[in-house]
Amino acid sequence: MKQLVTAGSLPWRLMGARRQATACLAGLALAGLALPGFASELAGEEAGAPQVIEREGVRIAFTTHPLGAHDENVEALREADHVEVRFRITDPASGQPVTGLYPAAWMDLAASSAVMAGGAALSCDQKIQRYAQGNLNFRPLIDLNSYHVLTLNRDATISVLDPIVNVAGLTSTYAMLPLRSPGADWALSPTGRRLFVSMPGEGEIGVFDTDSFELVGNYPVGHQPVRLALSADGQRLWIGDDAPAADQGGVLILDTASLEVIAAIATGAGHHDIALTADGRLAFVTNSEADTLSVIDAETFEVLGELDTGDEPVSVAYSRHAEAAFVAARDGTVTVVDGITGEVRTRRELEPGLRMVRFSPDGRWAFLVNTDTDSVEVIDPATHETRHRLAVEPGPDQVSFTQAYAYVRSLGSPKISMIPLEGLGRQAAPPVMSFASGSSEPARASRVGLDNAVSQTNIDHAVLVANPTADSITFYMEGMAAPMGTFRNFGHFATSVKIVDRSVSEREPGLYTTQLRLPAAGTYDLALLLDSPRMTHCFALEAEENPTLANPAHYAVSFDERPASITAGNSAQLRFQVSREERRTSTAIDDQPVYLSYFLSPGLHRTRVPARVLGDGRYEVDLAFERAGAYYLFVEVPALGIGAGDIRPTVILSRPQDAVRERVSSPANAQTDVDRG
Question: Which portions of the sequence form the region Disordered (predicted)?
Answer without folding.
Answer: 658-677
